[in-house]
Design brief:
The protein is α/β, with parallel strands linked by helices. It is built from 14 helices and twelve strands. The longest helix is centred in the last third of the chain and has 16 residues, at 305-320.
Length: 336
């Protein structure tokens, strides 16, 4: 088996959910790969320096470098790491995570070409990003979806007497958590006992805006903060509908996990979501930033038993396609 240097956000703190490096890295280790990691530095400058240092230190030990690549500030980290890999003649593979990466391709043309044209492959977890990159002239794009270990996700048998909404994401502006509060307010006009639980760390101060909005609209919201994967999966047993409110997205693992758990998903129709969810078949897609549209979709799930049961069944089947035992074959194929 080959040796891998995995570059990404390897922080382990209360302000971040599990990142790609923390999910995929250990799974590759289970398959016999030797994986070195960078970086767990919380300071961004030190993190970048540690990433560059790791490329130099491990340049003679590893066969390939994986680079988690996002669309915002971390895009520049990927650009600089790719530059170091090129200097050291290290093959590298960017993993395309940012839902807004198509905009980055447009705004940073030269840097994008430098990163993605010089790579061994570019791995797109969603067909949305694969298509977006190919439309910009990049042809070394391999689709390997985000993954989970399906045996850890038992199908819940929920009761649908009142809506019990679950939201799992980081509290960040791009994920538009305010929409969840507005949906709850509107939903309570028809279901006064409707519930909402929001799970995730506060990334940019948005959590205060959420609590202020809930107070203003006079709705009770359960906010747990960051939970371990096991804890939020256990918590999910007490809820019956999963909502995804984001304005930008790629292929969120939390949505796939909800599908695996038997929670019907109502999501905004943005980014990679329509490549994951077929409307009314394995979930419901609604226009972004519309509490009315999302509330109507939730009401439809509550009242249309046949549609709901079909969505739950089809979503579970879809989630099973992302099981590691299937996905790992694609990783092994490009890494060996």
């Amino acid at each position: 088996m080959k040796n891998i240097l995995y570059i990404g956000n390897n922080l382990k703190n209360s302000k971040s959910n599990l990142s790609g490096i923390q999910i995929l890295g250990p799974l590759l280790e289970k398959e016999g790969f030797s994986v070195y990691y960078a970086s767990s530095q919380s300071n961004k400058v030190l993190r970048l320096l540690d990433m560059i240092r790791a490329c130099i230190v491990y340049s003679k030990k590893v066969d390939v470098v994986l680079i988690d690549t996002y669309s915002t500030q971390n895009f520049y980290f990927a650009w600089m790491v790719a530059g170091m890999c090129n200097v050291l003649k290290l093959p590298y593979i960017p993993i395309l995570h940012g839902g807004d990466l198509p905009k980055r391709l447009k705004n940073s043309v030269k840097k994008s070409k430098y990163i993605f044209n010089n790579s061994l492959y570019n791995v797109a977890p969603s067909l949305y990003l694969k298509k977006a990159f190919e439309e910009k002239g990049f042809h070394n794009i391999i689709h390997i979806p985000n993954t989970l270990e399906i045996e850890n996700y038992s199908l819940n048998k929920s009761v649908f007497e009142i809506p019990k909404l679950l939201w799992v994401r980081s509290f960040s502006k791009i994920y538009n958590p305010q929409l969840a509060i507005k949906v709850l307010k509107l939903l309570k006009e028809q279901y006064p006992e409707a519930q909402l639980c929001m799970v995730g760390p506060d990334v940019d101060g948005t959590l205060k805006a959420i609590t202020d909005l809930a107070l203003k609209l006079n709705v009770d919201v359960k906010i747990t903060g960051k939970l371990s994967k096991k804890d939020w999966i256990d918590l999910a047993k007490h809820y019956n509908i999963f909502i995804n409110t984001t304005n930008f997205d790629n292929m969120p693992v939390s949505v796939i996990e909800a599908m695996a758990l038997g929670l019907p998903v109502v999501s905004t129709n943005v980014g990679g979501l329509p490549y994951l969810i077929a409307n009314t078949i394995n979930g419901i897609l609604v226009e972004p930033n519309s509490e009315k549209a999302m509330t109507l979709a939730i009401t439809a799930l509550m009242t249309d038993n046949l549609m709901r049961e079909n969505i739950i069944k089809n979503a579970r089947l879809q989630a099973e396609e992302y099981n590691w035992e299937i996905v790992k074959k694609k990783w092994i194929n490009i890494l060996e």
